[in-house]
C-alpha cells in the first residue's frame, strides 16, 4: 500500500504536460533571474541610427541585435529579458497574495458555514458582477500607475477565483468521516482545518495557483499595454506591444516577439496547471481507472 | 412556465439591485482616494486657487464622503450621471452612444464562440482516445494560453497589414453616412435597407469579434467534451447502443441534449468575461464602444465617466446572468416540473 501511494505521489513527474510546463516556466524564470547577465545590450539604450533592425536571420538583420531593434533603436532581446523580470515578479507576488486571501476566506466560509459563509459568498457575488478587466482598471485609477499597484490590483480582483472554487471543495471535504473523527478525537478548529482539510484541498490549490500565475502575466501585459504598469524607464511586454503597434507597417517582428513571450509563459503555466490537475485530482484518477 | 420565469427574474432582481448599490459605493470610494483633483483638472490651466476652490464647492468635493455619495446616488437614480470633465458632455449621452456598439460586438463574438465551441467540443469528443484526440486536447490548451487581445493583434497583423483583407479600425467606412436609429449599426443599416452598409459594418466587426470569440470558444469546447464524457457512461446511452442506434444519432439526439445544460451555465459565466474582454479589443481596433470610453476616461482621470461606465458593465453582467438563468429554466425539464 505504502509503495503504491508513493508511486502515485510521484506520478505527476512523469506527466508530459507537467514536464513541458516546468521546462517553459523554468526557462522564463531563468531569463528573469539572470537578465542582467544575459542581456547583450542595455535595454534602455537608444540608438536612432539603428532603428527597426529586423531579426538577425532575416534580410538586413544585424548579428549584433539578435532579435532586432525597436523604433528607438533599443535591443529587442534585452528588452524581452527584462520584461520577463516584470512578468515573473507580478506573477509570483500577485498570485501568492490572491491565493492567501482567497484560500483563507474559502476555508473559513466552507468550514464554518452559516453567516460567515453568507457574507463571504455575497462579497464574491459583488466582485464577480464586474468584468475583471474593468475592476482592475478602476482599482488602477485609484491606486495610480506602477508595478506595486498592478500587483495589488490583481490580488484584489482575483482572490475570488480561489475563493469560489475552493469553497465548494472545502464543503465536500468537511462532510468526510475522517474530519468528523478528528473533531471527535478533540482536534480544535485550527488543527482540523490545517491538518485534515488543507491536505485534501491542496491539489486544487496548487493547480489554481499555477493557472493564476498565467492570468497574472496576461493582466500585467494588459495594464502595461494601456500604460498603467511600469514607467518608461523599464521594459514590460505589454508596453513593447503598445510601442510596436505604432510601427506595425514597418516591422511585424517587434509586435510578434513580445506576444510570443507572453504566449509561451502563459502556456507554460497552463500546461503545468493542467498536468498537475490531471495527476493530483483523485476524482480524475478514479475516472481513468474505470 | 411564464409565471416561473417571472418569479425567477423577480428573485434575481432582488439580489441584483443590492449588488449594484454595493458596486456603486465601492467604485465611489476607490475613486475618491485618487491623488488627482478632478476640480483642478476641469478648469483651464491658468485658473486661480480661489476659482478652483469655488469649483470644488460647486462639484461638492468639499463635503464628507458619505454625503458626496448620497448626492451622486440621488442624481444617478434620476438618470443623471453628471458631465464628463474631459469631453464636457453629459455622461448619459456618451454611454447611450457607446453601449449599443459594445453589446453588438459582444453578441456577435458570443455567437462565434458558441459555434466554434460546440463544433470543437463535438470533435474533441468524437476523437476521444485516439492520437487525434490527444493532439486536439493539447491544441486546446495552447489556444487557451493566447488571450483575446493577442488574437486581436495577430489578426490585425495578418489580415490587416500583411494581407490586407479586412478593415481594422472603427465601425463603418468613413464614406458612408452613419444611420442613427437604435445605435446598433447592424440593425440600423437593415432599417435603412442598405445591404452594402450592413456588409461594411459586418466586415469591420469580423476581426474583433473573431478574436474575442476564438479565445472564449475553448472553455466551451472543453466543458462540452467533459459533459459528453460523463453522459457517455449513462444507462440510457448504453441502452441506445444496445438497441443498435448509430453513434452519430446517439451523440446528436441523446447525448448532446443533456450535455448542453452544463455548457450553457459555463457560457453564461463566459459571456460576462467576454463582455469585459471587449474593453481591450475595442482599444486595439479603435472601436467606438464602452471600452474605449473607459480607457480614455482612466487616462484623463475623468471620474464621472469611470463611475458610470463601471456601473454599466456591472449592470450588463447582471442582466446576462439573469437571461442565462431564465434560459436554463426553459431548457431544463427537471427544473420546470419542480
Can you tell me about this structure?
The complex is a heterodimer of chains A (290) and B (338). With 290 residues, chain A is mostly helical. Chain A has one domain: MetI-like fold (Orthogonal Bundle), CATH 1.10.3720.10. Chain A has twelve helices and no strands. Chain A has helices spanning 2-9, 16-33, 35-38, 76-112, 114-128, 132-143, 147-174, 177-185, 189-225, 237-246, 253-280, 282-289. In chain A, helix 4 packs parallel to helix 7 and helix 7 packs antiparallel against helix 9. The longest helix of chain A is centred in the first third of the chain and has 37 residues, at 76-112. Chain A is elongated. Residues 1-5 and 284-290 of chain A have low confidence and may be disordered. Chain B has 14 helices and no strands. Chain B has one domain (91-337): MetI-like fold (Orthogonal Bundle), CATH 1.10.3720. In chain B, helix 5 packs antiparallel against helix 6, helix 7 packs across helix 11 (247-284) and helix 11 runs parallel beside helix 12 (290-299). By secondary structure, chain B is mainly α. The chains are: A mainly alpha (290), B mainly alpha (338).
Amino acid at each position: 500500500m505504502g509503495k503504491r501511494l508513493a508511486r502515485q505521489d510521484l506520478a505527476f513527474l512523469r506527466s508530459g504536460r507537467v514536464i513541458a510546463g516546468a521546462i517553459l516556466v523554468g526557462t522564463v524564470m531563468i531569463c528573469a533571474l539572470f537578465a542582467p547577465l544575459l542581456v547583450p545590450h542595455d535595454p534602455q539604450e537608444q540608438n536612432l541610427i539603428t532603428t527597426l533592425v529586423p531579426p538577425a536571420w532575416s534580410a538586413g538583420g544585424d548579428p549584433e541585435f539578435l532579435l532586432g531593434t525597436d523604433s528607438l533603436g533599443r535591443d529587442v532581446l534585452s528588452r524581452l529579458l527584462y520584461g520577463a523580470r516584470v512578468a515573473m515578479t507580478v506573477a509570483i507576488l500577485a498570485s501568492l497574495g490572491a491565493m492567501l486571501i482567497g484560500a483563507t476566506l474559502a476555508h473559513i466560509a466552507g468550514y464554518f458555514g452559516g453567516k460567515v459563509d453568507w457574507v463571504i459568498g455575497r462579497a464574491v457575488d459583488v466582485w464577480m458582477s464586474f468584468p475583471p478587466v474593468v475592476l482592475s482598471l478602476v482599482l488602477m485609477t485609484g491606486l495610480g500607475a506602477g508595478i506595486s499597484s498592478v500587483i495589488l490590483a490583481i490580488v484584489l480582483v482575483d482572490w475570488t477565483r480561489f475563493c469560489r472554487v475552493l469553497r465548494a471543495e472545502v464543503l465536500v471535504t468537511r462532510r468526510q468521516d475522517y474530519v468528523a473523527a478528528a473533531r471527535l478525537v478533540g482536534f480544535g478548529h485550527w488543527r482540523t482545518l490545517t491538518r485534515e482539510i488543507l491536505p485534501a484541498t491542496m491539489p486544487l490549490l496548487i493547480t489554481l495557483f499555477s493557472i493564476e500565475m498565467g492570468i497574472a502575466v496576461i493582466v500585467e501585459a494588459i495594464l502595461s499595454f494601456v500604460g498603467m504598469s511600469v514607467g518608461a524607464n523599464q521594459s514590460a511586454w505589454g508596453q513593447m506591444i503598445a510601442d510596436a503597434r505604432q510601427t506595425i507597417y514597418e516591422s511585424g517582428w517587434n509586435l510578434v516577439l513580445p506576444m510570443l513571450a507572453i504566449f509561451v509563459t502563459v502556456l507554460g503555466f497552463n500546461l503545468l496547471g493542467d498536468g498537475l490537475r490531471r495527476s493530483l485530482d483523485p476524482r480524475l484518477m478514479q475516472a481513468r481507472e474505470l | 412556465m411564464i409565471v416561473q420565469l417571472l418569479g425567477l427574474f423577480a428573485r434575481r432582481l432582488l439580489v441584483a439591485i443590492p449588488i449594484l448599490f454595493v458596486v456603486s459605493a465601492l467604485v465611489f470610494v476607490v475613486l475618491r482616494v485618487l491623488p488627482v483633483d478632478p476640480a483642478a483638472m476641469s478648469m483651464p490651466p491658468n485658473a486661480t486657487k480661489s476659482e478652483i476652490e469655488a469649483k470644488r464647492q460647486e462639484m461638492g468635493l468639499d463635503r464628507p464622503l458619505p454625503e458626496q455619495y448620497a448626492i451622486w446616488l440621488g442624481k444617478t437614480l434620476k438618470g443623471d450621471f453628471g458631465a464628463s470633465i474631459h469631453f464636457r458632455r453629459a455622461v448619459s449621452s456618451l454611454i447611450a452612444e457607446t453601449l449599443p456598439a459594445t453589446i453588438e460586438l459582444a453578441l456577435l463574438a458570443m455567437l462565434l464562440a458558441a459555434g466554434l465551441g460546440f463544433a470543437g467540443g463535438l470533435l474533441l469528443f468524437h476523437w476521444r482516445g485516439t492520437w487525434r484526440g490527444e493532439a486536439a486536447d493539447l491544441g486546446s490548451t495552447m489556444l487557451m494560453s493566447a488571450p483575446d487581445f493577442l488574437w486581436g493583434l495577430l489578426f490585425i497583423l495578418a489580415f490587416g497589414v500583411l494581407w490586407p483583407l479586412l478593415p481594422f479600425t472603427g465601425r463603418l467606412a468613413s464614406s458612408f453616412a452613419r444611420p442613427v436609429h437604435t445605435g446598433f449599426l447592424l440593425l440600423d443599416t437593415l432599417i435603412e435597407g442598405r445591404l452594402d452598409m450592413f456588409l461594411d459594418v459586418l466586415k469591420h466587426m469580423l476581426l474583433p469579434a473573431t478574436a474575442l470569440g476564438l479565445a472564449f470558444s475553448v472553455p466551451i469546447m472543453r466543458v462540452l467534451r467533459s459533459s459528453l464524457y460523463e453522459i457517455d457512461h449513462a444507462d440510457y446511452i448504453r441502452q441506445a447502443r444496445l438497441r443498435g442506434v448509430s453513434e452519430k444519432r446517439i451523440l446528436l439526439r441523446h447525448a448532446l441534449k443533456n450535455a448542453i445544460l452544463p455548457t450553457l451555465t459555463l457560457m453564461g459565466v463566459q459571456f460576462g468575461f467576454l463582455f469585459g474582454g471587449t474593453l481591450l479589443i475595442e482599444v486595439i481596433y479603435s472601436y467606438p464602444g464602452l471600452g474605449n470610453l473607459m480607457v480614455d476616461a482612466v487616462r484623463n482621470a475623468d471620474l464621472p465617466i469611470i463611475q458610470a461606465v463601471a456601473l454599466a458593465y456591472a449592470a450588463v453582467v447582471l442582466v446576462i446572468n439573469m437571461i442565462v438563468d431564465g434560459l436554463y429554466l426553459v431548457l431544463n425539464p427537471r427544473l420546470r416540473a419542480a
